[in-house]
Amino acid sequence: MPQTNSFDLLLRNARLRGGQGLQDIAVRQGRIAAIGPDLTGTAALEEDAGGCLVLPGLVDTHIHLDKSCLLCRCRDAGGGLKGAIAAVSGLKRAFTVEDVYQRGARTLERAIMQGTMHMRAHVELDPLVGLRSFEAMTRLKRDYAFAIDLSICVFPQEGMTHDPAVERLLAQALAEGADLLGGCPYTDADPSLQMERIFALAVAHDVDLDFHLDFDLDPSWSHLEEICRRTVAAGWQGRVAVGHATKLAAIDDAALDRMTALLAEAGVGVTALPATDLYLNGRDQGHRAPRGVAPVHLLADGGVTVSVATNNVLNPFTPFGDGSLIRMGNLYANLMHLGPERFGDCLDMVSTTAARLMRIADYGIAVGGQADLIVLDADDEADAFGGIATPLMGFKRGRKSFVRPAATLVR
C-alpha cells in the first residue's frame, strides 16, 4: 500500500468482531488500507459508525432470483416439493426476460439492503424457459455490480438426460458467461448419468459445481456419496458444494459421522436452506413433522465448509422472505437449539465460511481485503445476531451502496 494518509473512505468508531475498543477503517481503491484507533488522514468520504458493529458484506450462497416473487401467480401450488416444481414449471413458458429481471431486481434490492454483498443465483435452464432467465440474470449482474457481486449458477431443475437440448443450453450459457454449473439429480430419470455429464461439463469449462441434492427425509438412499466420489475422481476438491442435503437430518449419529468424514475428505461444501427445508419437508407427519434441516454446524465441527442461505423468496417453494441472511442464520440457530456460545459460528455461515464455500478472494475485514462493509444497528455480536439487527449502511468496495436509517420512536 502507498504510504499516504489520503483515503477514499474513513469509517470511524467501528466495533469489530473479537476486537478491543473502537477502530477506524481506512479504504483506498476499493481495499482496506488501514485499521486502528483514531487513524489520521483525510478522506473523500468520512462516516461515523457510532460504536456499532461492522461486519464484512454478507454472502448468500444459494438463491433462486429467477423464480422469486411468484406468489400472486400461483397461490395454490398443492404443497410439497413436487407441487412447487409443477406450479413453477407451468409458469416458466410465459417468463420473459423483463419479467424475470423485474422480479429478480425486487428480491436483489431487498437482499442488498439487508447487507448481502455476494450472492450465488441458481438459474433454471430447460426448453420451457430457454435462456431468457439467464439473460435477465446477466443484466442484473451488470446493473447491480455497484452493490453486489452476483455469481450465476445454471442448472437443470427438471432433469437433463431425457432431452439433449438441456445439455446444449447449459453449455451455451457457460460459453456466454455463466460462472458455474449446478445439478439436480433427484429430478432426473437417470441421476447417476446426470452427475456424470454435469461433472464432465464442469471439467470441460473449468467451472465450480453446486448441486441440489438429497432433498427428502428418507435415509435409505443418497446421492451424496456418489458426489464425493466423483469430486475426488475429477480432482474438483474444494470446488463442489451441495444444497439442502436434508437426509443428513434423518440419519443416526454413526452415519452422520461417516458422511462428515467423506465430505471433509472430498472437500465438498454443504449449504443448509432453513426456510425452504422447513416448509417443504415432513408434511406427511402433520404436527409431528421433523425439522428436516441439515445440521451443518456439526459438519463444520468435522472440517466441512458450510453455509446457511436463502434459497427461495415469495414463491411456492418458500412463501416467505425478506432477504435477511442474519434472520436466516437466526432461524437455523433456533432450529438447532444453538445458544449465544455458537452465535459467532452462525454468523460465519452467512459470512466467512460462506465466502470460503464460494471461493471469494480477500474476504473479511483485514488490511488488503476487499472493502465490503456493513454497519449493524447493534454494538455487540450476540445482540446483533440474537436480535436480528438491521443494517444501517453499507459500503461496496469502499463506496456507499445503501443507507437504512435506524427507526426512531416518536413519543
UniProtKB/TrEMBL annotation:
<protein>
    <submittedName>
        <fullName>Amidohydrolase</fullName>
    </submittedName>
</protein>
<dbReference type="InterPro" id="IPR052349">
    <property type="entry name" value="Metallo-hydrolase_Enzymes"/>
</dbReference>
<dbReference type="GO" id="GO:0019239">
    <property type="term" value="F:deaminase activity"/>
</dbReference>
<keyword id="KW-0378">Hydrolase</keyword>
<dbReference type="GO" id="GO:0016814">
    <property type="term" value="F:hydrolase activity, acting on carbon-nitrogen (but not peptide) bonds, in cyclic amidines"/>
</dbReference>
<dbReference type="InterPro" id="IPR013108">
    <property type="entry name" value="Amidohydro_3"/>
</dbReference>
<keyword id="KW-0479">Metal-binding</keyword>
<dbReference type="GO" id="GO:0046872">
    <property type="term" value="F:metal ion binding"/>
</dbReference>
<dbReference type="Pfam" id="PF07969">
    <property type="entry name" value="Amidohydro_3"/>
</dbReference>
<dbReference type="InterPro" id="IPR032466">
    <property type="entry name" value="Metal_Hydrolase"/>
</dbReference>
<feature type="domain" description="Amidohydrolase 3">
    <location>
        <begin position="108"/>
        <end position="379"/>
    </location>
</feature>
<dbReference type="InterPro" id="IPR011059">
    <property type="entry name" value="Metal-dep_hydrolase_composite"/>
</dbReference>
